[in-house]
C-alpha cells in the first residue's frame, strides 16, 4: 500500500508540474534585487503581478465603514424570515389589501435587524482590532542599504528582513543567513502546528557564506523561482539563480510565518510569500457563518409555513370569489362603489389573508430564539463547575448562536497534545539489563516510598520525581555498568538543544518525551551540557566529557528510531540507538541478552499506558565506519529520493544491536479525561483523536484515556486499506445501473467480527474511509496536518451529515475548530489562536462533559420545547381567523381586535415560553451526567423535526378549532343576561381572545417541567397583563383620546360580566387542554422515554440529598472507612460549588451511614442494574487507585469520580 | 493532602477575579417544583373535572329549558305570509300584521328582538366603513368624513353624516305589538330606553354640543338610504336623536355572525310588567328593510332571560358531553395505567 501512496504523490507532482508549466509565465515569481532598491520586478510583463503579490497586511474582518450597512443588511435578508417580513411590509403599504396597520410589521422588523446588526458590529470591531495589532507589529527591513524599523504590513515580497531572538516571523522567508554556524536557525512552530519543541532551519551554504553583512545583503541580486502559494506546511519547492548558479530550495530553508525565532541571535530572510499568501494564512479556513441544524430546520419550517399560508390564503381567496358571486354581489348593504369583478376581489382577499395570517411566523420568533441563546450562553459563562480555579478561567461561550447544537453532537474531534494530555512527560520507569526500576503509578502512598532526594547532584532538576531509590544507589555506586550505559545513552542520543539561563540548564526538546529522557539522565548524573555541530559534551558522574558526533541518524515515522554514532574520547566508535520496541527487536544481535525479560517489562509498561522506547548500542570498528561513512556521504548527495537512499544506508549500520534496556514515560492526562470520554461514549458520541503525533504515542494515549478499551479490536490504516480496496472492487463490479440503488441500500459492514472496533490510521490518505471509520467506536488519526484535521472533520460532516465538534488548544487546531459545527478551544494552554477561533472556550477537557451533557442537552431541550410551543401558540392563535372566515364571507376579517393581534406575541404569550426556553430542566444536571443516554434524543433530533412540527401544527389547528367553534356555538342564538346586544363581534373577539390566553398559558404551564417562582410569576403575570391591557384598551378614556384607534370601548367589561361567557371560556379551555393531557399521559404510560424513566429519580434525589452523597457513601463503604473529614474537605475543594458542600455537610456521620447507603443502593438497583455492576467493580479494584489519586496531584479526583 | 487543598483555596481567594458568582440563578439551581402527569393526579383529576362539567351541563340545560322563546319569521317569501305583499312591490310604508297566540304566561321581563339571517355585518370592509371621530361628536369630521366611509362618504358633493355603510344600512322596520282582548287591539307598551350598551350610549357615541342639534348637521347629507336625517330619528323623544339614538346604537354594534338578533324593545311596563299573558297577539310591522335580494330572512323574537342569558342548549349539551368523556377517559387511563405501569426493574 505504500506504493499506492507513492503513486498518488507522483500523480500529484505530475499534475502540479503540468499546471506549473502552464501558469509559469504569469505565476512564476521573479525577484531581482538591485543595489539600493527594494523589491523591483524587472521583467516588464510581470509588473501586473503586483496584483497577485499580496502585501503583508492581513484582513480577517468582514465590514468597513462603508460596506457595513449594505453588507450586513444583505446578510440579514438572506434569512428567509427577514425577507418574508420585508415582503409583508410592502404588502401592508398597498391600500387595497392592507388588513393590518403597517407599523405592526415595521417596528419589530427594525428592532430585530438592529439588534443583529449591533451584535455583528461588535464582533467585527474585535476582528479589526486584532488585525491592526498584528499588522502593526514591528520588524527590521533592509531599506536603502540599511536595516530600518518597519511594520509588518509594510513588508513586501522581495524584502530582506532581520529577525532577532524570540521574534515572530512576519512572512514566509527564505533563510539567508544567521548568527549561528552554518546559518542554523532554531524556530518554534507552536503557532503553526502546535508543537512546542524547537526545530532547526538551515540556510543555503552559499547565502550563509556570502550574505552576512548588511552591505552584502543590500547587494544581493538573485532570481527566485518557486511554487505558487499553497497551504502545505510540509513542502516547499523552489530554485534560486544567483551569479549564474542554480540552487535548489526546500522547506528546510524556509522560515514560515507564525513561527518564532529561538536560540538564534540574528537571522536574515528574504520574503517569498507575504500576507494572505503565507502558508499559515492559506491554512486558515475562511471564517464561516455557522448555523445550527435547528436554524436550518427552522428556515425550512418557515418555508413550509409560507407554503401553507399561500395555500390557505389562496383557498380563502377563491372562497371569497364564490361568496361574492353568490351572496356578496347581491347584498346591497355591502356595496362599496368599486367596480371589481369577483375574481379580482378574490385576488385582493388572497393578499389580505396573507397579511392577516402572517402571525403564523411571528417575527418575535427570531428575537426570542436569540434571547434564549444569549441566556444559555450566559449560563455557560456563569457555570462554576466549568470554572478552572487554578488559572482563574471561567468557561466562555464566544458565540451565542450555537448552544442548542451542543445537545446534538455526534462526533467529537479532539486534538491530543494539550487537550487530552497536559503535554507534560515524566520519566516513570525503566528496565535495565532485565531489571525493572520505578514503582507503579497506582501504588498508594501509605507504602514507605518517598521521592528520591537529588541533593547529591548539583545539576539535578528538582521538579523531577522518581520513586525507586535502588536505581539511584546503583548508579551512584558506579558498579552497575548497564545502568551507567543506559543513562549515558540517554544523555547522548537525542536532538535536544540546551539553553543556559543564569547557570541553569534549560532543555529545548524536539518532543517532550525526549526532554523527559534527557532530564532523567541529568538527574541520574549524566548531564547533557552542550552541543555543537559535531560534538556533544556531557557531565558524566561529575566528569565533563566531550564526544565527537560522527553521524546522526534522525528519527522519522517510518524508521521509528534514531541513532547517533559517536567517537569516544578514547577513540572507540559506538552507535547508540533508541526506538520503538518493534523496530529495535528486529535489529538486535543474536547474542544480546535480556531480550525476554525486557519484553516482559515492556508489556507491563504498555499496560500501564506508558510510552516506551528501547535503548541499545553497537560498537563499530574504524574500518567499518569508514566504509559506511562513504556510503552515507553519497546518499546525502542524492538528488532524487534522498530520504529513501539515506534510510537504506542507515539500515545497514543499525543492525546487530546490543540491548541495554527500555524507558517508560508517562504523558500525563488531564484530570478527568478518561471519565469524560467514557461518559461521552455512553452518550453515543464518537470521539476521534486527530494528532500530529506518531502512531504509538497516539495509541498509548488512546488506551490511557479509555478511548480505546480492551474489548475493542484495533485496526490500523494498513488493514483498512485492504478492506477499502475490497469494497471498491465489489462496487466496481456492480453494473453501473445498480449503482444508485447500491448507494441507497446500506452496505454490509466492513467489520464482520462482533465486538467494538477501533481504528488507527495515518494521515496522507483520508478519502473514502469515512464509512468505515464511522463504524468504529473510536478513531485515532496520527501525523495529520492542520489542513488534514479540517479535512477529516469536513469529510464526516459531508458524508455523514453529522453534527461535529472539534476541540483543541493550539494554532494547529484552528482549522478544524473552524470547520466543525462547533469549535471548542482549550484556554490557558499554549497560545490563544484556538480560543480566538473557537465558539466555546474553557480550561480543561473534562468540562466538555458538562458542556455537552448538561448545557448542550438543556439548551437543545429548551430550544425544542420553545419552538414547538411557539409554533403551536401561533397556529392556534392565527387559524381562528381561518375558521372565522367561513362565516364572514372570506373577507379577511380578523377574529380578534387589532391590538390583541399586535400584543399577543409581544406581551401576552411570550414571557412564559421564553422562560421555559431559558430555565426549563427535564432532569437536573447531576442526572444528566449520570444517565448519558439522555443525550441520545438530541443526536437523533427527536425533539424537534418535521414530525414535531406537524404535531404542533395539528395541535394548533385543533385548539384554534375549539377556540372558534365553542364560542360560535355559544353565540349562535344567545342574548345577554340583561337582554342587551347579545352576540356582537366585539364580545365574540373578547371571548375567543380570553379563551386563547387561558389555553396558551395553561398549556405552557403543563409543558413546564421545572417550575420556579419566575415561571409562576410569568404565567400569572401574562394573564394579568392580558386583562390589564385589555381593560385599558377597552376603557372610556383612551377611546375619547384616540377614537379611531381604540374602538373596543366597553367590550371587555360588557362581555366579561356575563357568567354565560365565562362558562364558554371555561369549556373552551377545558376542551383545548384535556385531550392533550390525556394523550400525554397515555403516551408516557405506554411508551415512556428515557427521560420519563429518569425523572422520578430527580424527585428521589431531591428529597434524599444529592448524588454526590451517594458517591461518597459508596466510596466509603467499599474502602471500609468511616467518613473522615478528609473526604468532606475534598468535596469542598472541588469546584463544584455550594451544593456539594451542603450535600457533604448534610451527611450524617458514623453509624447512620450504612442504612442510608443501603437505601440508596436499593433505589439504584431498582432502576439501573448496570450501576450495581459499577459498584462491584468499584469495590473490587478502585479503592486503591482512588486513594492513590488523592495522594497524587489533584484534589478533584475524589470519590466523586467513582461511578 | 490537606495542605494541597488549602494552598489551592488560598490561591483561589487571591486570584479569582473571573470566578462566576455562586447564586442559585446563575448556577441554575433555583428552587423548583417539577410537576409530573402522574397517575395519582391525572386520573382522579379527570374524574373530578368530568363530574364538575356534568354538573355545570345539567345546570345550564335546565336553565336553558326554562327560558321561553317565541320566534316568528316575517320575511314574506311564502305567499301565505301576511308580509308577502310587502315584498312584491317597492311600495313604501307597507304595513303587514302578524298574528300569533301565547298559550301560557310569557314570563317577564320579555325582550323583543328583530333578527336577520344571511346578513354579513361582519364583513371586513363593511365593518370598517364608519368614522369614529364623527360618531363621538367631533364636528370637524362632519365636513370631511374618513375615507373608510367610501362609497358613503359624500353625496352630491356634501359629506354624509353619519357616513359609511353600516350607518347607511341601518335597520328600519318598525314594530307595534297589540294584544287582542275581546277582539280589540290593545297596544302593548314597548320600552326603548337603555337597550344599547351603556358605554356606547355614554362614551363611544355622542352628539355634538349644538342646540338645536340640527345646526351641527348644516351642509351635510343624511345617509343615502335613510328617509330622515340623524337628528330626527325619534320624533317622539328629542333626547333620542342624533348618534345616541338607541336603535342606531344597537345597529352600529356589529354582529359577530351572519345570523343575528338585535334587541328592539323591552316589555316592562303597565299590565305587561310580569310578562305577556296568554292570549292572542298581533304584531304590526312597517315593512321597509329589503332582505330578499340577498336571500336573507327577517324574524322577530320574544324571549325572557335567565342568569345565563337567552336560550341556548349548545353549551349545556357540550358540557355534558365533555364531562362524560372525561369520566370515560379516566376509566380508560386507569386501565391502561394498570396494564403498562413502568416496569420497576427497567
TrEMBL record, chain A:
Segments of skewed composition (Basic and acidic residues): 1190-1203
Enzyme class (EC, first level): translocase
CDD domains cross-referenced by the UniProt entry: P-type_ATPase_APLT_Dnf-like
BP GO terms, sorted: Golgi organization; phospholipid translocation
SUPFAM superfamilies: Calcium ATPase, transduction domain A, Calcium ATPase, transmembrane domain M, HAD-like, Metal cation-transporting ATPase, ATP-binding domain N
Catalytic activity line of the entry: a 1,2-diacyl-sn-glycero-3-phosphocholine(out) + ATP + H2O = a 1,2-diacyl-sn-glycero-3-phosphocholine(in) + ADP + phosphate + H(+); a 1,2-diacyl-sn-glycero-3-phospho-L-serine(out) + ATP + H2O = a 1,2-diacyl-sn-glycero-3-phospho-L-serine(in) + ADP + phosphate + H(+); ATP + H2O + phospholipidSide 1 = ADP + phosphate + phospholipidSide 2
The protein's required cofactors: Mg(2+)
Transmembrane intervals: 39-58, 79-97, 103-122, 300-324, 344-369, 866-887, 899-919, 949-968, 988-1006, 1013-1030, 1036-1053, 1060-1083
Residue ranges constituting the P-type ATPase C-terminal domain according to the UniProt record: 835-1089
EC number: 7.6.2.1
Active site: 415
Annotated membrane topology: Multi-pass membrane protein
Spans annotated as Disordered: 1126-1145, 1174-1203
Domain P-type ATPase N-terminal, residue spans: 55-106
Pfam families reported for this sequence: Cation_ATPase (PF13246), E1-E2_ATPase (PF00122), PhoLip_ATPase_C (PF16212), PhoLip_ATPase_N (PF16209)
Residues given in the record as Mg(2+) binding sites: 415, 417, 809, 813
Ranges where the P-type ATPase A domain occurs: 135-198
Residues binding ATP: 415-417, 514, 555, 578, 611, 691-693, 783, 789, 812-813
Any GO molecular function: magnesium ion binding
Coarse class of the protein's main subcellular location: membrane
Name by which UniProt lists this protein: Phospholipid-transporting ATPase
Automatic annotation (TrEMBL), chain B:
Coiled-coil segments: none
Name of protein: Cell cycle control protein
Transmembrane segments: 41-62, 317-338
Location(s) in or outside the cell: Membrane
UniProt source species: Oryzias sinensis (Chinese medaka)
Main localization (coarse): membrane
Family note: Belongs to the CDC50/LEM3 family.
Cellular component, GO, one term: endoplasmic reticulum
InterPro entries: CDC50/LEM3_fam
One Gene Ontology term from the biological process aspect of the record: phospholipid translocation
UniProt keyword annotation of Membrane present: yes
Any Pfam family hit: CDC50
Record's keyword terms, sorted: Membrane, Transmembrane, Transmembrane helix
Amino acid at each position: 500500500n505504500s506504493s499506492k501512496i507513492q503513486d498518488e504523490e507522483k500523480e500529484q507532482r505530475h499534475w502540479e508540474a503540468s499546471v506549473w508549466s502552464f501558469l509559469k509565465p504569469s505565476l512564476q515569481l521573479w525577484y531581482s534585487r538591485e543595489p539600493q532598491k527594494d523589491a523591483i520586478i524587472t521583467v516588464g510583463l510581470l509588473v501586473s503581478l503586483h496584483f497577485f503579490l499580496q502585501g503583508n497586511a492581513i484582513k480577517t474582518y468582514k465590514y468597513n465603514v462603508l460596506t457595513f450597512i449594505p453588507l450586513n443588511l444583505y446578510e440579514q435578508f438572506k434569512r428567509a424570515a427577514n425577507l418574508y417580513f420585508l415582503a409583508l411590509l410592502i404588502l401592508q403599504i398597498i391600500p387595497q389589501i392592507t388588513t393590518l396597520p403597517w407599523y405592526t410589521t415595521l417596528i419589530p422588523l427594525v428592532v430585530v435587524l438592529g439588534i443583529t446588526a449591533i451584535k455583528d458590529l461588535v464582533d467585527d470591531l474585535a476582528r479589526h482590532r486584532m488585525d491592526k495589532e498584528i499588522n502593526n507589529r514591528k520588524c527590521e527591513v533592509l531599506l536603502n542599504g540599511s536595516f530600518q524599523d518597519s511594520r509588518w504590513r509594510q513588508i513586501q515580497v522581495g524584502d530582506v528582513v532581520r529577525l532577532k531572538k524570540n521574534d515572530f516571523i512576519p512572512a514566509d522567508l527564505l533563510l539567508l543567513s544567521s548568527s549561528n554556524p552554518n546559518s542554523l536557525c532554531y524556530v518554534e512552530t507552536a503557532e503553526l502546528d502546535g508543537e512546542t519543541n524547537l526545530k532547526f532551519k538551515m540556510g543555503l551554504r552559499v547565502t550563509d557564506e556570502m550574505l552576512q553583512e548588511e552591505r552584502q545583503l543590500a547587494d544581493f541580486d538573485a532570481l527566485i523561482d518557486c511554487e505558487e502559494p499553497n497551504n502545505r506546511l510540509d513542502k516547499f519547492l523552489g530554485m534560486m539563480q544567483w551569479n549564474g548558479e542554480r540552487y535548489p530550495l526546500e522547506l528546510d530553508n524556509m522560515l514560515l510565518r507564525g513561527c518564532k525565532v529561538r536560540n538564534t541571535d540574528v537571522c536574515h530572510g528574504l520574503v517569498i510569500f507575504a500576507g494572505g499568501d503565507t502558508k499559515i494564512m492559506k491554512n486558515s479556513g475562511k471564517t464561516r457563518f455557522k448555523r445550527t441544524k435547528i436554524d436550518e430546520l427552522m428556515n425550512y419550517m418557515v418555508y413550509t409555513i409560507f407554503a401553507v399560508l399561500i395555500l390557505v390564503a389562496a383557498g380563502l381567496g377563491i372562497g371569497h370569489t364564490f361568496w361574492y358571486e353568490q351572496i356578496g354581489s347581491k347584498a346591497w348593504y355591502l356595496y362599496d362603489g368599486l367596480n371589481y369583478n369577483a375574481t379580482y376581489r378574490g385576488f385582493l382577499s388572497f393578499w389580505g389573508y396573507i397579511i392577516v395570517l402572517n402571525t403564523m411566523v411571528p417575527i418575535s420568533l427570531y428575537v426570542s430564539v436569540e434571547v434564549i441563546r444569549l441566556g444559555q450562553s450566559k449560563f455557560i459563562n456563569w457555570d462554576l463547575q466549568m470554572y478552572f480555579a487554578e488559572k482563574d478561567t471561567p468557561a466562555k461561550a464566544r458565540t451565542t448562536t450555537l448552544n442548542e447544537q451542543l445537545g446534538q453532537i455526534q462526533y467529537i474531534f479532539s486534538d491530543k497534545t494539550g487537550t487530552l494530555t497536559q503535554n507534560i512527560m515524566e520519566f516513570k520507569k525503566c528496565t535495565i539489563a532485565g531489571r525493572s526500576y520505578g514503582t507503579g503509578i497506582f501504588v498508594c502512598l501509605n507504602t514507605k516510598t518517598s521521592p528520591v532526594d537529588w541533593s547529591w547532584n548539583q545539576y539535578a532538576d528538582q521538579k523531577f520525581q522518581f520513586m525507586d531509590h535502588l536505581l539511584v544507589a546503583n548508579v551512584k555506586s558506579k558498579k552497575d555498568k548497564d545502568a551507567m550505559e543506559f543513562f549515558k545513552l540517554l544523555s547522548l542520543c537525542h536532538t535536544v538543544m540546551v539553553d543556559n539561563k543564569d547557570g541553569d540548564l534549560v532543555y529545548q526538546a524536539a518532543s517532550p518525551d525526549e526532554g523527559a529522557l534527557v532530564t532523567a539522565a541529568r538527574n541520574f548524573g549524566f548531564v547533557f551540557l552542550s552541543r555543537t555541530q559535531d560534538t556533544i559534551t556531557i557531565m558524566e558522574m561529575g566528569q565533563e566529557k566531550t564526544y565527537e558526533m560522527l553521524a546522526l541518524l534522525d528519527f522519522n515515522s517510518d524508521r521509528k528510531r534514531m541513532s547517533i554514532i559517536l567517537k569516544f574520547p578514547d577513540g572507540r566508535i559506538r552507535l547508540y540507538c533508541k526506538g520503538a520496541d518493534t523496530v529495535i527487536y528486529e535489529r538486535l544481535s543474536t547474542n544480546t541478552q535480556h531480550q525476554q525479560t525486557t519484553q516482559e517489562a515492556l508489556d507491563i509498561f504498555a499496560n500501564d499506558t506508558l510510552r516506551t522506547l528501547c535503548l541499545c548500542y553497537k560498537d563499530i570498528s574504524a574500518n567499518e565506519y569508514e566504509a559506511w561513512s562513504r556510503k552515507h556521504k553519497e546518499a546525502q548527495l542524492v538528488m532524487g529520493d534522498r530520504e529513501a537512499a539515506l534510510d537504506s544506508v542507515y539500515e545497514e549500520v543499525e543492525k546487530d544491536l546490543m540491548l541495554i534496556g527500555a524507558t517508560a514515560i508517562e504523558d500525563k492526562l488531564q484530570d478527568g479525561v478518561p471519565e469524560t470520554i467514557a461518559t461521552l461514549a455512553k452518550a453515543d458520541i464518537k470521539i476521534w483523536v486527530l494528532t500530529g503525533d506518531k502512531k504509538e504515542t497516539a495509541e498509548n494515549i488512546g488506551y490511557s484515556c479509555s478511548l480505546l478499551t480492551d474489548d475493542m479490536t484495533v485496526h490500523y490504516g494498513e488493514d483498512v486499506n485492504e478492506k477499502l480496496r475490497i469494497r471498491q472492487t465489489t462496487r466496481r463490479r456492480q453494473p453501473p445501473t445498480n449503482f444508485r440503488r447500491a448507494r441507497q441500500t446500506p452496505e454490509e459492514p466492513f467489520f464482520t467480527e462482533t465486538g467494538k472496533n477501533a481504528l488507527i490510521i495515518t494521515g496522507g490518505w483520508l478519502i473514502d474511509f469515512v464509512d468505515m471509520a464511522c463504524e468504529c467506536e473510536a478513531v485515532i488519526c496520527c501525523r495529520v496536518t492542520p489542513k488534514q484535521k479540517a479535512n477529516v472533520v469536513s469529510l464526516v460532516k459531508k458524508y455523514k451529515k453529522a453534527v461535529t465538534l472539534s476541540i483543541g488548544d493550539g494554532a494547529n487546531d484552528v482549522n478544524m475548530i473552524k470547520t466543525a459545527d462547533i469549535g471548542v478551544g482549550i484556554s490557558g494552554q499554549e497560545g490563544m489562536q484556538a480560543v480566538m477561533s473557537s465558539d466555546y472556550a474553557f480550561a480543561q477537557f473534562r468540562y466538555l462533559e458538562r458542556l455537552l451533557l448538561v448545557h448542550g442537552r438543556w439548551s437543545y431541550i429548551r430550544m425544542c420545547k420553545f419552538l414547538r410551543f411557539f409554533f403551536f401558540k401561533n397556529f392556534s392563535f392565527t387559524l381562528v381567523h381561518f375558521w372565522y372566515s367561513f362565516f364572514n364571507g372570506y373577507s379577511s376579517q380578523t377574529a380578534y381586535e387589532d391590538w390583541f393581534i399586535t400584543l399577543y406575541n409581544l406581551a401576552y404569550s411570550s414571557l412564559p415560553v421564553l422562560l421555559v426556553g431559558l430555565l426549563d430542566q427535564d432532569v437536573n444536571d447531576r442526572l444528566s451526567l449520570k444517565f448519558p443516554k439522555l443525550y441520545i434524543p438530541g443526536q437523533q433530533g427527536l425533539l424537534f423535526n418535521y414530525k414535531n412540527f406537524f404535531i404542533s401544527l395539528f395541535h394548533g389547528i385543533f385548539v384554534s378549532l375549539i377556540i372558534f367553534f365553542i364560542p360560535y356555538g355559544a353565540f349562535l342564538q344567545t342574548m345577554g343576561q340583561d337582554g342587551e346586544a347579545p352576540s356582537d363581534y366585539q364580545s365574540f373577539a373578547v371571548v375567543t381572545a380570553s379563551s386563547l390566553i387561558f389555553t396558551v398559558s395553561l398549556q405552557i404551564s403543563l409543558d413546564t417541567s421545572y417550575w420556579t417562582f419566575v415561571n409562576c410569576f410569568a404565567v400569572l403575570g401574562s394573564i394579568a397583563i392580558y386583562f390589564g391591557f385589555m381593560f385599558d384598551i377597552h376603557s372610556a378614556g383612551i377611546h375619547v383620546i384616540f377614537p379611531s384607534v381604540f374602538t373596543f370601548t366597553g367590550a371587555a367589561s360588557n362581555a366579561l360580566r356575563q357568567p354565560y361567557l365565562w362558562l364558554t371560556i371555561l369549556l373552551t379551555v377545558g376542551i383545548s387542554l384535556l385531550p392533550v393531557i390525556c394523550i400525554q399521559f397515555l403516551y408516557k404510560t405506554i411508551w415512556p422515554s428515557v427521560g420519563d424513566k429518569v425523572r422520578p429519580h430527580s424527585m428521589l434525589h431531591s428529597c434524599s440529598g444529592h448524588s454526590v452523597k451517594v458517591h461518597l457513601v459508596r466510596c466509603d463503604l467499599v474502602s471500609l472507612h468511616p467518613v473522615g473529614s478528609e473526604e468532606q474537605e475534598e468535596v469542598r475543594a472541588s469546584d463544584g460549588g455550594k451544593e456539594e458542600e451542603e450535600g457533604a455537610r448534610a451527611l450524617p456521620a458514623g453509624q447512620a451511614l450504612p442504612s442510608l447507603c443501603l437505601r440508596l443502593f436499593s433505589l439504584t438497583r431498582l432502576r439501573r442494574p448496570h450501576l450495581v455492576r459499577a459498584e462491584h467493580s468499584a469495590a473490587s479494584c478502585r479503592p486503591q487507585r482512588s486513594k492513590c489519586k488523592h495522594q497524587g496531584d489533584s484534589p478533584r479526583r475524589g470519590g466523586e469520580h467513582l461511578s | 493532602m490537606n495542605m494541597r487543598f488549602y494552598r489551592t483555596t488560598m490561591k483561589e481567594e487571591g486570584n479569582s477575579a473571573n470566578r462566576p458568582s455562586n447564586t442559585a440563578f446563575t448556577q441554575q439551581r433555583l428552587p423548583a417544583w417539577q410537576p409530573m402527569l402522574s397517575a395519582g393526579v391525572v386520573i382522579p383529576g379527570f374524574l373530578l373535572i368530568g363530574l364538575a362539567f356534568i354538573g355545570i351541563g345539567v345546570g345550564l340545560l335546565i336553565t336553558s329549558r326554562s327560558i321561553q322563546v317565541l320566534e316568528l319569521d316575517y320575511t314574506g317569501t311564502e305567499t301565505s305570509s301576511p308580509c308577502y305583499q310587502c315584498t312584491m312591490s317597492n311600495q313604501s310604508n307597507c304595513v303587514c300584521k302578524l298574528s300569533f297566540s301565547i298559550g301560557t304566561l310569557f314570563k317577564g321581563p320579555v325582550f323583543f328582538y328583530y333578527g336577520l339571517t344571511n346578513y354579513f355585518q361582519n364583513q371586513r370592509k363593511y365593518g370598517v366603513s364608519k368614522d369614529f371621530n364623527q360618531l363621538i361628536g367631533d364636528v370637524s369630521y362632519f365636513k370631511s368624513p374618513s375615507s373608510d366611509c367610501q362609497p358613503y362618504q359624500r353625496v352630491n358633493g356634501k359629506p354624509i353624516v353619519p357616513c359609511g355603510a353600516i350607518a347607511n344600512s341601518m335597520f328600519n322596520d318598525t314594530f307595534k305589538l297589540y294584544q287582542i282582548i275581546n277582539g280589540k287591539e290593545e297596544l302593548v307598551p314597548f320600552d326603548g330606553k337603555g337597550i344599547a350598551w351603556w358605554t356606547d350610549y355614554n362614551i363611544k357615541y355622542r352628539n355634538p354640543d349644538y342646540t338645536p342639534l340640527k345646526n351641527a348637521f348644516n351642509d351635510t347629507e343624511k345617509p343615502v338610504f335613510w328617509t330622515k336625517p340623524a337628528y330626527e330619528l325619534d320624533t317622539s323623544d328629542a333626547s333620542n336623536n342624533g348618534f345616541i339614538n338607541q336603535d342606531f346604537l344597537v345597529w352600529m354594534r356589529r354582529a359577530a355572525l351572519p345570523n343575528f338578533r338585535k334587541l328592539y324593545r323591552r316589555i316592562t311596563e303597565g299590565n305587561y310588567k310580569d310578562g305577556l299573558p296568554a292570549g292572542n297577539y298581533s304584531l304590526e310591522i312597517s315593512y321597509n328593510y329589503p332582505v330578499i335580494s340577498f336571500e336573507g330572512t327577517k324574524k322577530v323574537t320574544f324571549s325572557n332571560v335567565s342568569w345565563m342569558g337567552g336560550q341556548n342548549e349548545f353549551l349545556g349539551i357540550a358540557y355534558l358531553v365533555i364531562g362524560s368523556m372525561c369520566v370515560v377517559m379516566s376509566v380508560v387511563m386507569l386501565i391502561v395505567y394498570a396494564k403498562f405501569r413502568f416496569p420497576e426493574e427497567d
